[in-house]
């Protein structure tokens, strides 16, 4: 990944460059203190990811993101901030920020966020490559090419912040199994479903019991991560589309609201969130089928 760092604090810029270099997360191709020429520099260099401070003397981070988007910049944004004002954080998300890194800078948080951003960028590039290939093969533009079931599932998982989780691959295979059935009204026994998905992955029969247990754990962790992601969005602004749409449909809303309150109070979870795997899988299946019908 190619990074551009915008921060009026030279120490913060140095720390971020050091973390990116030490952990081999990519290459910093430019940096700025947020002056008036920054927008031109970012647009000219075209980095994959911009790390941008929220509060800067000349132009604040949110306004700079808007100006970059207006001139067609396609990169992604990670915001650096000490601010916990939920209105301002909500405004940043609406402007196009993908993740926040809190100040003072924590090495582990930076590594985790940038790794997730890298995985997301790679996934997006893969989808672009697939669409381009289809366009050339069939002489059909991406706008008229129906979205595949796989693309739809990945899009939904991305909205819930878990496309880069290990369990996302399992969910893709499970959706493939379910969509091959004539009609699904309820989710079959999970063990049976996991075995069918594992066979599609090419897992040997002798390895099925072990893989089924591992798959369940990966899926459980992925759904739990989705709860945390949506609760984080709702804690900032409950009118954010992803929160409004997915939280009440896919999850026990009481679990989401309880996690929101903990986030707002900056408390650690008192217990793991209750994960209802069958409900999640059924809603993911229904959402996939519905979206696919809309593209046909």
From TrEMBL:
Record lineage: Bacteria, Bacillati, Bacillota, Bacilli, Bacillales
Keyword hit for Iron: no
Superkingdom of the source species: Bacteria
Positions of modified residues (4-aspartylphosphate): 53
SMART domains the UniProt entry points to: REC (SM00448)
Protein name, per record: Response regulator
Stretches of the chain forming a coiled coil according to its record: none
Span of domain Response regulatory: 2-118
Matches recorded under InterPro entries: CheY-like_superfamily, Sig_transdc_resp-reg_receiver, ST_Response_Regulator, YcbB
Record-linked PANTHER family: TRANSCRIPTIONAL REGULATORY PROTEIN GLNL, TWO-COMPONENT RESPONSE REGULATOR
Assigned keywords, A-Z: Phosphoprotein
Organism: Sporosarcina contaminans
């Amino acid at each position: 990944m190619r990074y551009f760092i915008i921060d009026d604090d030279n120490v913060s810029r140095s720390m971020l460059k050091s973390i990116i270099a030490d952990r081999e997360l990519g290459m910093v191709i430019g940096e700025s203190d947020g002056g008036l020429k920054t927008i031109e520099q970012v647009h000219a260099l075209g980095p994959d990811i911009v790390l941008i401070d929220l509060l800067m003397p000349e132009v604040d981070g949110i306004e700079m993101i808007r100006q970059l988007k207006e001139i067609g910049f396609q990169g992604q944004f990670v915001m650096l901030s000490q601010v916990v004002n939920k209105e301002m954080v909500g405004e940043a998300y609406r402007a196009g920020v993908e993740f926040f890194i809190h100040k003072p800078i924590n090495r582990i948080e930076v590594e985790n966020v940038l790794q997730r951003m890298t995985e997301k960028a790679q996934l997006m590039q893969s989808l672009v490559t697939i669409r381009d290939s289809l366009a050339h093969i069939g002489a059909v533009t991406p706008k008229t090419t129906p979205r595949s079931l796989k693309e739809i599932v990945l899009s939904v998982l991305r909205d819930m912040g878990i496309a880069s989780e290990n369990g996302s691959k399992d969910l893709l295979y499970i959706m493939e199994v379910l969509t091959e059935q004539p009609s699904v009204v309820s989710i079959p026994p999970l063990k049976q479903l996991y075995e069918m998905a594992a066979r599609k992955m090419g897992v040997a029969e002798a390895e099925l019991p072990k893989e089924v247990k591992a798959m369940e754990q990966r899926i459980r962790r992925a759904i739990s991560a989705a709860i945390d992601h949506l609760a984080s969005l709702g804690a900032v602004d409950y009118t954010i589309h992803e929160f409004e749409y997915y939280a009440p449909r896919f999850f026990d809303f009481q679990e989401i609201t309880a996690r929101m309150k903990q986030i707002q109070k900056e408390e650690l979870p008192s217990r793991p969130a209750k994960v209802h795997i069958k409900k999640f899988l059924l809603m993911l299946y229904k959402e996939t089928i519905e979206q696919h019908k809309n593209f046909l």
